[in-house]
Amino acid sequence: MKRITKEIKKLQLIANLIDIVYAVFGVVLVSYLFVILVEPAAITDVVDPNTTYNLLGFEIVQATVNLLIGLLLGYLLVFVPTAVQNMRRYFSKEAIELDEWSYRTQHLYMVMSFFTLNPFSAVLRYIAGFQMKEIVKGYKFKQTMINAWVKIKLFFSGETFKKAKERKMRRKEQSESQQDLEKVSQRDFVLKIVRMSITYTFLTLMALFIFIPFYWMILTALKTNTELTEALNPRFVIGLGEMQWVNFKLAITRFNFGTYIWNTISVGVLTMLGTVTTTILAAFAFARLNFKGRDFIFSILLLTMMIPGELYTITNYVTVSNFGWIDTMAALIFPFMVSVFYIFFLRQSFKQIPDTLYQAARVDGCGDFKYLTRVMIPIAKPTIITIIILSAIGAWDAYIWPQLVTRTQDNWLISVALRGTSFTTDSGLSDARPVYNVQLAATALVTVPLVILFFTLKKFIISGVGRSGTKG
Questions:
Q1: Residue 421's domain is classified under what CATH number?
Q2: Is the pLDDT at 120 greater than 60, yes or no?
Q3: Average pLDDT estimate for 288-305
Q4: Domain count of the fold of the chain
Q5: In which domain, by residue range, is 126 found?
Q6: CA distance linking residue 363 with residue 429, whole number of Å
Q7: Which has fewest Cβ within 10 Å: 138, 330, 335, 400?
């Protein structure tokens, strides 16, 4: 078994650290460019294109700043996930054995480093890749060059074409039965290609159907308010220099964006903690504890899932009003600390844990709560993480209930603020007009954390759903 050496691991670690330095430098530079952006006097105005900035001793105009921000964000969008993936691979316990794909992967990372303008990391990955190849193949750089030169000579000398002609002649000499088998294989191959083409075409169309609204949101957020209100034919593509990145700065500085985000995070975290606590305790009770009426109570809870949530709004509002919680954070937190669906979801995962573990734990003197914390929660970790993510997303996206129970802007969540009077030009009911570019810039800022959260923890979501959907 061929294993990775300490020297190769050292080269990979240094390359990964260089990637992190590049990422940090890119983030700092983008942040600096956003800070120096000049805001217009009114949110509906456009910054003078002749506005000049001093960047590291160079005088640049507004369009150049927009161009640099667009290029840097695109660069970080590609570079940061790659750097994170490389670091995860470095610490992976599975990345200790070497095979032919190991050094090819390093060469691929080398090419990606060159494309992301990181020559230092590219050189280190090039060296690490050849050291891996030496371990796998048994020869060094010199023999690699000799092999490449031999292949080039064979190609230009016509040996490659001669071998292809010989294979064609041998195929003609085959028997008719073998030729028939080849025809069948070719027909199956063509049918497989057709099926794959249809499948991937359908998936591509569905991906575009999902992607286009997000693209239109970002595109609208980068346009001027004049273009959105006066242009007869909206543009589907704009130049990097025309992108109005100052709209994102306006969304943060001209409104109580920080207050709305803080309220949303506070409500989301507290609601998530309460939901996870009640869900784990209730799911454990319905899955492992034997008490009178357990199945009947659980059936009643499942029946409540058939009732639309909107029907609970009036009764919940009356209850919250009687407690005096209107226009307080308590009204946004406590009504959503229990979810029947999450209880059912986690109970199905708990039911798959063998009863023999529970019986053995009871024989050893382990109590129910200790068994829950030591055995069931670690085993059902993917499902619990899925519940945490879905609960946080639900609190982040909530709109109807927060709008109903909050009256002052100090208690608004970001979802309410996006549809309220925060992103309008006037305060009156009749003359208030939404500033769509700034509004959608704020919406994009709200959407980004959810996208990062999903792609970071998507494997736990898939694993949790799979465990709960498997019949044990």
A1: 1.10.3720.10
A2: yes
A3: 86
A4: 2
A5: 6-138
A6: 70
A7: 138
What pLDDT band is residue 471 in, cutting at 50, 70 and 90? very low
Q: What are phi and psi of 408, to 5 degrees?
A: -100, 150
The pLDDT, as a whole number, for residue 472 is 38
Whole-angstrom Cα distance, residue 84 to residue 62? 32
Task: Answer whether 387's CB lies under 8 Å from 237's CB.
Answer: no
Q: Write out pLDDT tens, residues 138-150.
A: 666 566 666 666 6
Cα 225 to Cα 274: distance, rounded to the nearest angstrom = 42
CA-CA-CA-CA torsion sign (87, 92, 98, 104): negative
Quote the CA–CA distance of 355 and 371 in Å, as a whole number: 12
| Dist. CA 172–CA 186, nearest whole Å | 16
Q: Which residues contact 14 (CB under 8 A, 6 or more apart)?
A: 124
Does residue 152 register a pLDDT over 80?
A: no
215 within domain boundaries: no
The whole-angstrom separation of Cα 128 and Cα 103 is 8
Does 183 map to a domain?
A: no
Confidence of residue 47 (pLDDT cuts 50, 70, 90): confident
Top pLDDT among 400 and 2 is at: 400
Instruction: Select from 106, 138, 170 the last residue of a domain.
Output: 138
Q: Please, what is the average pLDDT of the chain?
A: 81
Q: Is residue 271 domain-shared with residue 127, that is, in the same domain?
A: no
In sequence order, the 6+-apart residues with CB closer than 8 A to the CB of 414 are: 257, 260, 261, 263, 264, 396, 442, 446
Predicted local confidence at residue 470, as pLDDT = 43
- Let me know if residue 210 belongs to a domain: no
Residue 244 lies in a domain: no
Q: Give me the mean pLDDT over the 222-227 stretch.
A: 87
Q: Does residue 427 register a pLDDT over 60? A: no
Length, in residues, of the chain: 472
Tokens 């307080």: give the residue.
328
Q: Based on the domain organization, do 450 and 304 belong to the same domain?
A: yes
CA–CA dist 371, 357 (Å, integer): 9
Domain boundary among 81, 110, 138: 138
CB 73 within 8 A of CB 50: no
Strand partners, 16: none
